[in-house]
């Protein structure tokens, strides 16, 4: 009986206009991320720390979700992290003044996040055999994201990249080249954003709601294959809460603030909530693996 009522409800709702509450939520906006200088272990060459950091910056630029600033472009000094609060007397005045100027410059950019990191190891192996040259480079580094608005920081997240080749230079180059691609998961996981449904398309020949438009696009670096989780916002005993009711996948980015999506699951629940003018929120997820 309940399934019949839902079916009848959806059939009636499908005849309503596709748009609901147009313009109630502005499209998500980009924010600024500063990629700071990287620390390094004593046995790690400065050049490796610089190359890894360059790879991280390249990964952020390719994901194209934030405005990215290289700390070096701001004229910031590479100052070792110090504990100014717990032990201020241990810091010489010149370093303390530099830290203050550094903080002022960062604040002036309006940045929301600062990403810092460190290269903890770089291991080079020559495993050539039988007269055939073969080399491998393994680099381990970590990243931490600092939210300047809330003061919160993520736990260090470790990454390991490897590269091999017929020469040491080839092994190094391939290891460093893989840093950029590893950033897509990191960005999708730590820098999520919210958006909304603009329109649900008519039912397909099988009577299913299979396509909809969302209020974000190339301006947020949305790419074909990106996933979004669909949540119903409601109050439970007076407390705001979210309940996941479906998932959608971007089929085609159609502009700066609009993308066509296929509904991966939860089509009926999404449509019923949408046409009933209930509050739906989409949260960026990751990229579909297939």
How would you portray this structure in words?
The protein is of the alpha+beta class. It is built from five helices and twelve strands. The chain has helices at residues 2-13, 46-63, 93-108, 168-190, 267-275; strands at residues 32-40, 67-70, 113-126, 135-147, 157-165, 194-195, 197-200, 211-214, 226-236, 239-255, 258-265, 280-287. The strands form two sheets. Strands 6-12-9-10-11-8-7 form a seven-stranded antiparallel sheet. Helix 2 (46-63) links the parallel strand 1 (32-40) and strand 2. 27% of the residues are buried. Mean pLDDT is 85; it is low at 1-23 and 80-91.
Question: What descriptors fit this protein?
Answer:
290 residues, 5-stranded mixed beta sheet, 36% strand, globular
